[in-house]
Amino acid sequence: MWLWEEQGGLLGPFSFLLLLLLLVTRSPFNACLFTGSLYLLLRLFSFEPVPSRRALQVLKPRDRVSAIAHRGGSHDAPENTLAAIRQAAKNGATGVELDIEFTSDGIPVLMHDNTVDRTTDGTGRLCDLTFEQIRKLNPAANHRLRNDFPDEKIPTLREAVAECLNYNLTIFFDVKGHANMATDALKKIYLEFPQLYNNSIVCSFLPEVIYKMRQTDQNVITALTHRPWSLSHTGDGKPRYDTFWKQSMFVVMDILLDWSMHNILWYLCGISAFLIQKDFVSPFYLFKKNILGSLGGAAVWRLPLAQGAILETRDRIPRRASGAWSLLLPLPMSLPLSFSLCDYHK
What we know:
One of its GO terms (molecular function) is phosphoric diester hydrolase activity. The N and C termini lie far apart (49 Å). The chain contains 10 helices and 10 strands. By secondary structure, the chain is of the alpha/beta class. Strands 1, 2, 3, 4, 5, 6, 7 and 8 form an 8-stranded mixed beta sheet that branches. A two-stranded antiparallel ribbon has the order 9-10. The protein has 2 domains: 1-45; 46-344, TIM Barrel (Alpha-Beta Barrel), CATH 3.20.20. Helix 1 (11-25) packs antiparallel against helix 2 (28-45) and helix 7 packs across helix 8 (207-216).
């Protein structure tokens, strides 16, 4: 049943791979041998996702549209701070996204960049600074409301988790890298705060991070995050490389990564959610993923080859929202995919 799931499972991707190998090798035996071996390896080393009922508690808390505060809610307070978490809760967020980085002495803290230059009054790479040094920095130094937060500090991961749980906020742990360090730190956090198993999700752009997390603790809800063309282009669409051959090589790698993300890696990691940058959610994207239909204003759609959630996170959590649409997408392995669109009042 794993290959022949209701909406196709791995049948489509592996059929495509088999046909491609037949064209390249012109040998049915070799093509079937390679495809079959790859399928067996995938079955052997893949993880089952957590039960869908538990995943729903995170993806659709309180049975309503999710409002996730990006970087803790960086519009109304300095990003990735305890003040931002409190403000997000006050503004009605159901959850917060927290970026995890590490100091030179291995302390997990909240920081989006690998340097402290953009958000604080300090300079330098985070990996070159001790926790004692970064604790002296002001994370509100470059924020538009800096005068309202004179005593704010860069929080540890533990401090941030405790604050989120105090306000009953769902936590999206965004892991930038450091797979081994991050999984070790998160394992300790989950042991200390077992309620996180039903109130948080670990997500990353890097499949190795998610795979390592599932190896460490298969009860943790996880998600793969994806921005198309991320290897070859920056966030504003500019090419990353000046030389034609190098740029072209990374474009090809982006195509392979995109195909793998949507067809293979989510099975391998056993994720409960697939998060894609909101700028790439479009009618064409939904059509390409074979959306089957919609029901009135509530819009219940089906997505055959994805597993999890497309969630829009915002730096600013509005106090009022109208024209809200909640999309629930059943998936091959019965894991819901939820996506919210709101016409926000200024």
